[in-house]
Amino acid sequence: MACIAMLGCGTVGSGVAKLIYKNRDRFKKNLNEELILSKVLVKDINKHKEKNKDYILTNDVEEIFNENVDIVIEAMGGINPSYEYVKRALLLKKHVVTANKDLIAEHGAELLDIANKNGVELRFEASVGGGIPILKSLSECLVGNKIKSIKAILNGTTNFILSKMSKENMNYNDALKLAQELGFAEANPESDVMGYDAARKLSILSTIAFEKRVNWRNIKISGITNIDTEDFKYAQREGCEIKLLAMSELQNDELYAAVSPVMVRKNSTLGRIENEYNAILVDGDAVGDVVFTGKGAGMFPTASAVFSDIADIIQSKRESTLIFNYDKADVNTLWKRESKWLLRIKTEERIKAMETLTEYFSNCSIISKELYNLDGEVAAFVKSQSEAVLDRFIDDIKERINTEEIKKILILED
Amino acid sequence: MACIAMLGCGTVGSGVAKLIYKNRDRFKKNLNEELILSKVLVKDINKHKEKNKDYILTNDVEEIFNENVDIVIEAMGGINPSYEYVKRALLLKKHVVTANKDLIAEHGAELLDIANKNGVELRFEASVGGGIPILKSLSECLVGNKIKSIKAILNGTTNFILSKMSKENMNYNDALKLAQELGFAEANPESDVMGYDAARKLSILSTIAFEKRVNWRNIKISGITNIDTEDFKYAQREGCEIKLLAMSELQNDELYAAVSPVMVRKNSTLGRIENEYNAILVDGDAVGDVVFTGKGAGMFPTASAVFSDIADIIQSKRESTLIFNYDKADVNTLWKRESKWLLRIKTEERIKAMETLTEYFSNCSIISKELYNLDGEVAAFVKSQSEAVLDRFIDDIKERINTEEIKKILILED
User: Fold this and answer.
1) Which option is the CATH number for B339-412: 1.10.10.920, 3.30.70.920, 3.40.30.10, 3.30.160.40?
2) Which of the residue ranges B9-18, B40-49, B288-297, B377-386 would you say has the lowest mean pLDDT?
3) How far is B108 from chain A (nearest CA, A)?
């Protein structure tokens, strides 16, 4: 018998509870193991009474740490008080399953260390990519590979907004509003649209993939708030979509890691991922490119991943292969490969800007003003040896001409 | 220390040997376990001497069954003598890893039974989808789901041929020849182009997904030898690609299973899978659609999966969750959902055929003769309530008109 207690009963928690009830008979039949959800911690028992069998609800956290409990599911989200509760559960030698990417990105190494020392498991498959089985695939199935790169769409909210901007010519604010109305974006969308959510997930993926601890604060993070309808016109001209990509890649033996809006070919693997879907493209030296696609969030996709962690813990007598407490990685935030970029220079000194562009880049295609009718702007696709070279040009031109803003977007060809 | 012996050293075997050597240090560092490839069985030692360290080569199969050996890798392919060797290894309480889909599709249930009884593992991740981690994802990561359907491109050879026919207007014979020249098709391509290879893989996937034993001989199998350039013109007209799909799906609580050329929308998930790539689309009741894409064959993708099985066995103290000896499934080979189909009726009695078509189907669009200039043929897209209804029409029209052949291709809209 496996006795499970759960912290929180919001969207994720309710889904997990339903999945546990639904799979009890099958679990018993196939694995001869009884799943018992013994206690669920909620703030207000009356609020949840109708949707749950009330005898398992409690507002007393001590009941979660009861000695009979084998596995604690953390489904509260956020860092406080999740961090303290998870730590306490592990110290009490209870296995913990969580979907909380904020918690793992922030305290994963410490918590896994505590879990190891106490001979219990800390599992967090649902923290990245919702129901897509990416952490287990990286840590177990691709274990014979040296991972060369990860390129991923890890945030459904921003992918939904960018899809609407691209396919239905909506502007950013309207697309965000629609996402909020449909429940794909929260009332306060900052963590999503600023790229923080994707960066936390990328830090978890990269730590496992590259066997070095990647702190999410060391990742270069640009969100999508700066993307406008004109950017999509330029992208269209190049046969591209704009996607918020989470990228980590070994470039000249250094680890590059960034979350940024990037142009990808419309017919490429990532260019085709629409709306709230997530996709993770992993390039391993043996397996080549492997792509995992699915819903990255939502009640049941997330619960599906949480449930697989529970099943793993119950069936497994071995220690986890999830390693998180590697040495810290030095993270490079500058793109080192030769690539094409879109440059948009806001200036009234158009002629001077164009001269400077053609002088600087041997491979430069300036987009004709007539095409997009943008006053006070020069836009060009340039090929640059590296991002550092491009940044030097940007600094340089800022000294030569009056410019309000220079915007750059990477075009990813692979 | 884990002592490994291998049967065979062709493409897959060489890849596995290289991956074992390459990962030894990392394995030791991360998991404190020594990997030793002790013996490799080959027919002719001299033939392999240059590429391998000769001290591990042997042509005496008894050395493989030496008492020091913990894990036997079967990399010979085919059923004979693989079946006998694998059985013997399991009976001697050695773990076995294989990439052999023919062996597993034919004898998987018996061999897994022997493995269970002897307390050892039989693993075969590489048998389906090459390096794509699909079996573990199905049996462990999606364990909380009831699987509703699997739709997959499981054979790279046929997908390469169909891609060339579609994108480069090649005919079947030229595309097959090119595939053979590039090493994507074997000299005798029968198992691939007739759909047997895909059917064997589908039987393995379906057995795990639906928890009923699906015999590959009960699957309806149509290959691609019958697909001609005209089919691609019709597909083009509908905005479709033709793909050899391996499909299993619960339809009205019955399991439908078939391998067949199917039209899928060009911009759909499976319509976009090109050349030698494989893709598996799994629809689970909790997780929704999850898609796994990657190279389904080749030395290192296959070795990557074999290596992950080895790693699993070494690190794991638990019994596998791979179950294969379920009760036998009743397999339905008729498509039960209302769908659109392409019908091509070879006949000189065109008018009569057209009359019969419009009489029979309320939703029928006959393709104008001028469009494709096909003498002696009536082609139409019809909507039929089920495949059985369509088949009754085909029987019916065969009685009414003189026809050499009637061809039908399903159009999959989801």
Assistant:
1) 3.30.70.920
2) B40-49
3) 18
* Residue positions of B annotated with a catalytic role: 201
Beta carbons of A286 and B303 less than 8 Å apart = yes
List CB contacts (< 8 A) between A311 and chain B: 140, 143-144, 321
Residue A229's CB is within 10 A of a number of other CB atoms, namely 12
Query: Per-residue pLDDT tens for A121-134?
Result: 999 999 999 999 99
Give the start-end residues of each E strand in A347-404.
364-366, 377-384
Select the residue from A22, A25, A132, A287 to test the B interface by mutation, using most B Cβ atoms within 10 A: A287
Q: Which of B111, B59, B109 is nearest to B88 (CA)?
A: B111
In chain A, the residue whose alpha carbon lies closest to the alpha carbon of B289 is A294
Q: Report the pLDDT averaged over residues A395-404.
A: 92
What does DSSP assign to residue B79?
S
Taking domain A2-123, whether its CATH number is 3.40.50.720 is answered by yes
Q: Which contiguous run of DSSP H or E holds residue A104?
A: helix A101-117
pLDDT at B112: 92
Q: Which residue out of A94, A164, A201, A295 is catalytically annotated?
A: A201
- B36: number of Cβ within 10 Å: 16
pLDDT given at position B317: 45
Q: Considering CB atoms only, which of A293, A300, A318 is closest to B315?
A: A318
Fold of B134-296+327-332: Dihydrodipicolinate Reductase; domain 2 (3.30.360)
A134-297+327-332: which CATH number, 3.30.1130.10, 3.40.50.1820, 1.25.40.390, 3.30.360.10? 3.30.360.10
